[in-house]
Design goal:
- By secondary structure, this protein is an alpha/beta fold.
- The chain has a domain of 201 residues: Dihydrodipicolinate Reductase, domain 2 (2-Layer Sandwich).
- Helix content is 35%, strand content 21%.
- The chain has 14 helices and 14 strands.
- Strand 11 and strand 12 form a beta hairpin.
- The longest helix has 21 residues.
- It starts with 16 loop residues before the first strand and ends with a strand.
- The structure holds nicotinamide-adenine-dinucleotide.
- Nicotinamide-adenine-dinucleotide binds next to strand 1 and helix 8.
Length: 397
């Protein structure tokens, strides 16, 4: 049997992209994931500048400790964009790892400063903002990528291929879940920096878990089943910790897709005892595929009437599109850091294609782009609209 040609960090683009980060400082939850993703391959990005924190002293101390030159640590993003633009070796792409309410203004400023953008989810509060930024990015010739960090698990691409090839028959049901129990601790809403803003509508947006969690799973489902688009949603949302209202800490969503496909999402931060986990189960007329992000090295394939199969990551029997992102080889485990590295690599390749003007190559690339970000905003908006109007079916477009 032939082996699998693995990613080994060798360069895929001419030189690493000069990279800066806004947010993601010492106390930030997600900053290290960004650096893990971008810097895994020494050949994709080079971290050169940061406005890492709302507190400049902490930004400077933290920045020095992670090896950024002191004169490229900035008190805020505006100063960073201005000062970096003056340098011949200034940053050309920026990641935004700040609370939700800041994403729109920082993305807009970054594009206007001539930077490519990699922004956290949920991208912005309103679909119109997403459309406006998409137009601006097109005018400026820049990429806006979204860090749906779980979407780099390569077995999702195997799922995509098997569904496309008819290996589960006609798709009938798209069953999704992203739940954990860490929101059971109501006191954390008052104490934990990263939780305080999440339960404040002015800072988090119109939702809590629908935006914070389910946008990930929703994007992953679109990645594995791109041929099925949501037509309408019906959502019921609850605030089991009452002080969180109107923001939900639990929601159930039903989905209608084209071609009679139906779906269901359960998203929760109050699933007591549950660790953070996402499940995607795609049920077809002949078989089902199931992926769980706690076991990202395995994909379950169940054919009706036959023994179940567990497909293992890194094996030659998987599709090339999946094995193209193999890093560790089948006999070693991979995890979330590898997924982030894949997401960052895909965005680097998209930026490179954009810089070279290779729109044909860009069109074929599968990565979390601005459209995926806008779909995430639409998902939240429509779910909230349905829930707050008596749990009615709401058209998705
Ligand atoms: N993709 C994922 O898997 C994932 C995981 C966690 C969080 N997130 C998203 O990442 C974003 C940040 O979440 P978090 O949990 O890290 O938040 P956090 O509150 O833990 O950290 C925010 C960080 O940003 C800094 N900051 C805030 N405003 C800033 C500004 N104007 N300029 C510079 N720095 C600023 C803070 O000092 C802090 O370092 C949110 O949008 C969240 O939804 C995504």
């Amino acid at each position: 049997m032939e082996g699998v040609k693995m990613l080994n960090g060798e360069k895929k683009i001419e030189r690493p992209l000069r990279w800066g980060v806004v947010g993601g400082g010492r106390t930030g939850q997600v900053g290290y994931k960004h650096r893990t993703g971008a810097l895994r391959d020494n050949t994709a990005y080079q971290l050169l500048a940061g406005a890492f924190d709302v507190d400049f002293d902490r930004c400077k101390d933290f920045g020095k400790n992670i090896g950024v030159a002191e004169d490229r640590l900035y008190p805020d993003y505006k100063t960073m964009f201005e000062e970096e633009a003056k340098r011949s070796d200034g940053i050309e792409v920026v990641s935004i790892a700040t609370p939700n309410f800041t994403h729109y203004e920082i993305t807009k400023a970054a594009l206007n400063a001539g930077l490519h953008v990699i922004c956290e989810k949920p991208l912005f509060f309103k679909v119109e903002q997403g459309e406006e930024i998409k137009k601006l990015a097109e005018e400026k010739g820049k990429i806006v990528g979204v860090t749906y960090g779980f979407s780099g698990f390569q077995l999702l691409l195997q799922m995509r291929k098997m569904i496309e090839d008819g290996m589960i028959g006609d798709v009938h049901m798209i069953e999704l879940r992203y739940t954990h129990g860490f929101g059971c601790d109501a006191l954390a809403d008052k104490k934990a920096e990263g939780q305080k803003w999440r339960v404040n509508p002015a800072k988090s947006g119109p939702s809590f878990v629908l935006g914070d969690l389910s946008t990930h799973t929703f994007y992953m489902s679109q990645l594995v089943c791109p041929q099925y688009r949501v037509k309408e949603v019906l959502c019921d949302r609850q605030s089991f910790v009452k002080s969180r209202a109107p923001l939900e800490d639990n929601a159930y969503v039903l989905m209608h897709y084209n071609d009679g496909v139906i779906g269901r999402m359960w998203v929760s931060a109050v699933d007591a005892g549950s660790m953070d986990s996402q499940h995607l189960r795609i049920v077809g007329s002949k078989a089902s595929l199931e992926f769980n992000d706690w076991q990202p090295n395995e994909l379950i394939y169940e054919v009706q009437g036959k023994p179940n199969q567990t497909l293992h990551r890194g094996m030659p029997y998987l599709d090339d599109s999946c094995n193209a992102y193999e890093r560790m080889a089948a006999l070693h485990t991979e995890g979330l850091g590898d997924s982030w590295a894949n997401v960052y690599l895909k965005i680097a390749l998209a930026i490179d294609a954009k810089n070279r003007g290779d729109e044909e190559a860009l069109k074929k690339m599968v990565y979390p782009d601005i459209n995926a970000g806008i779909d995430g905003i639409r998902w939240i908006t429509k779910c909230v609209e349905s829930a707050d109007n008596g749990n009615k079916w709401v058209s998705f477009d």
